[in-house]
Amino acid sequence: MDSNADGSEGLYRLLVESLGDYAVLAMSPGGDIITWNAGAQTVFGYTKAEAVGRPFGLIFTADDVQAGAPATELADAQRGCRTQSERRHLRKDGTTFWASYTVSPMYGAAGTLIGFATIVADTSESFRAREALRESEERLRLLIESIPEYAIFSLATDGSITTWNSAAHRTLGYAEHEILGKHFAELFSPDDVANGVPSIVLQKATALGAVDEERWFVRKDGTRFLGSEKISRLKTGSKSAASGFVHIAQDITARNEFADELRRRASIDALTELPNRSTFLDHVNRAIAAMKRRASSLFAVLFIDLDHFKEINDTFGHTVADRLLEITARRLERCARTEDIVARIGGDEFAILLNSISDIRDAEGAAQRIGAEMRKSMPVDGRSVRATVSIGIALGSPHYDRPEDVLRDADTAMYVAKGAGRGRSMVFVPQGGTATGSDGEIESDLRHAVDRNELRVFYQPVLRLSDSSVAGFEALVRWEHPTRGLLGPQDFVPKAEESDLICAIDHWVLRNACRALAGWREHFPAAELSINVNFSSKEFSRPDLLAELQHVLAATGLPAGALHLEITESAIMEQSDRTSTVLGAIRDLGIQLQIDDFGIGYSSLATLGRTPAHALKIDRSFVESMESRTGKVLVHSITHLAHNLGLVAIAEGIETDEQLAGLLAMRCEFGQGFLFAAPLEGGAAEAFLRAHAPGVA
Q1: Which of these, 504, 512, 594, 612, lies nearest to 552 by C-alpha position?
Q2: How far apart are CA 344 and CA 325, in angstroms?
Q3: Average of pLDDT values for 329-353?
Q4: What CATH number does domain 256-441 carry, 3.30.70.270, 3.40.190.170, 3.90.1150.10, 3.40.50.300?
Q5: 269-281 per-position pLDDT tens digit
Q6: Which of 45, 471, 566, 606 could form a disulfide with 596 if both were Cys (CB 3.0 to 4.6 A apart)?
Q7: Residue 79: band (very low, low, confident or very high) from pLDDT cuts 50, 70, 90
Q8: Of all helices (H) and strands (E), which one includes residue 454?
Q9: How many angstroms separate the CA atoms of 36 and 26, rounded?
Q10: Distance of CA 565 to the CA centre of its chain
């Protein structure tokens, strides 16, 4: 027996000493160390001679010893037969480390306590790994919680919801404790659930790795919203099967409504709510295509211009003039049939597409009805206003290929009617008729307008909205026609575009405007004035454009940063590689670019973001609509978009104090409009400067 006992004890000691990675020690019932293996020396740094006989607290930190932790551990072990825990322990050199350990009581043959056995393992590496994982998970949680517009939650493989962020609570209405464990089909519409859409979506995500879709979601309160949804498959290790899914959803209802409103505004005239020029040309294009397929599909285009509109505008102001345009639009709609298209082309010009007519007499009859209707007195803001119209008629033909040609011919006939005494209609006569000659005369006059010094530059002040000081001017071209009087850009710029005269006009305005501004900057140096000059998209195909810009700046002594070129939103959308290169080169010269009439087109945000512009001009139609909630939302959205893109916002067409207050609240930096000043000739612009320029007493 003794021999066997000695052999067993020797085998036990050999086993304990072989556990080199584990500290194995035993304590007396009073807590003094009585055995200490080689692993304990490795882990704690004490030799067996240094450790045996010392209290169990030798391997505890000073704080734990002071708190009575060693005695507590032994007492807990005796009561529970064994304890297991993890805590910081102390080495001989004073360093601490994390370790897991067990304490077990040892009993003799009579059942009396003879001591305690402890096994300690250094878990520093695994603890650091767990701590790093915990910190990583916390950072991920904080990141997910910091994205307020995205509802982010995770799904088990069966579609049940396992996590739920606060944005999901705000977006979908469910608190975390209400939704965890439920199937995400709870968030789908009843029709989608009935059609098995939730399962189909998970199957697609499993097969493809991720799925991006838009669908209608249902909130806790039963209301619905349109949301974008991305579901990504999670994989564990090298397994190809999904171990779950991450689901990200965003409420895009407002964004889609804004996009729909932009599309709608891109197709209609904001003032009259009629189709605009672009939409009208689309309809004419379809009419041409129908006539090419079937010659009996006859149509006609009526081009309608209000007579003496400029005089009405100058006499009664923009408010009365705009109201007159609205009344005209309604009267034209009453004169048209259901199948006809009534549009506002621009300024005081309207057009009607007469579909499915029998012959030219139908078009002439429609023109007579319109003329009679328009001769009736119009009650406008307590005034009685009369305005006749001149009408040009172009009859459809299979020989037309472009809708612009039909509109041009109707416009030509309208000018003939206006030249014949106004208040009448005229049919376009192709191949040498009177109307064709009139159009040629207009173009010929325009070609000589620069040489004859008939062009004029008017200057509309651009103000800092915060203090109503003048920041600069927009240069606006007018034509002092020898027989027709002062014409606005809507009366001749479209023809200049068609006949490629627009570049000559642009450069004439550029030179004169820069010369005028250089003089004003000399007299008002503190104002640091700038000049905005409108540029046609055709400019960017000119090989000498950059040289011309440099020449004008050098000749006038104007700093490049004081020149701002305005390009339309449509020109941005038409960007070619050549245009992009030229725009970048203009920016490199120090000249600033502004995107004009933003919102009346439908631009790609990606293209907009790549354009080297510094300012975005909000079209006056949006500013006019600020009385409505939708109008305010649109202007605020455009201003916010400009600021997010790092652009300055400039509002056009400000006419009321209410509009100004709203724009200030939206942090719109600059503005122009009749509330401040109409376009002014040079002397009047300088007088305005004396009253409003910064630094002028």
Answers
A1: 512
A2: 9
A3: 94
A4: 3.30.70.270
A5: 889 999 999 999 9
A6: 566
A7: confident
A8: none
A9: 7
A10: 23
Nearest to 156 by CA among 218, 79, 231: 231
Q: CB of 624 within 8 A of CB of 271?
A: yes
Measured distance CA(475)–CA(330) in Å, rounded:
34
Instruction: For 552-579, write each residue's pLDDT tens digit.
Output: 999 999 999 999 999 886 666 655 677 7
Question: Which of 15-19, 413-417, 497-501, 521-525 has the weakest average pLDDT?
Answer: 15-19
Q: Is the pLDDT of residue 325 over 50?
A: yes
Closest CA to 163 of 96, 238, 246: 246
pTM surpassing 0.85? no
Supply 276's token pair.
């605009």
The gap between the terminal CA atoms of the chain, to the nearest Å, is: 118
Q: What are phi and psi of 395, to 5 degrees?
A: -85, 135
Written as six digits, the tokens of 82 are 């064994």
8 A C-beta contact, residue 364 and residue 391: no
pLDDT of residue 650: 96
| Number of residues written out for the chain | 697
Alpha carbon 570 to its chain's center: 17
What is the secondary structure of 344-390 as a DSSP string?
Answer: EEETTEEEEEE-S-SSHHHHHHHHHHHHHHHTS-EEETTEEE---EE
Name 564's bridge partners.
532, 592
Tokens 């201003």 belong to residue: 639
DSSP 358: S
Residue 157 tokens read as: 């493989």
Cα–chain center distance at 594: 17
pLDDT at 433 > cutoff 60: no
Q: Which helix (H) or strand (E) holds 67?
A: none
Query: How many whole angstroms separate alpha carbon 380 and alpha carbon 654?
Result: 21
Q: How many Å apart are CA 534 and CA 3, to the nearest integer?
A: 111
**What is the per-residue DSSP string for 45-81?**
---HHHHTTSBGGGGB-HHHHHTTHHHHHHHHHHHHS
Cα distance between residue 689 and residue 697, in whole Å = 11
CATH homologous superfamily of domain 2-128?
Answer: PAS domain (3.30.450.20)
Q: What is the CATH number of domain 147-251?
A: 3.30.450.20
The yes-or-no answer to whether 147-251 and 256-441 have a common fold is no
Give me the pLDDT at residue 561, please.
95
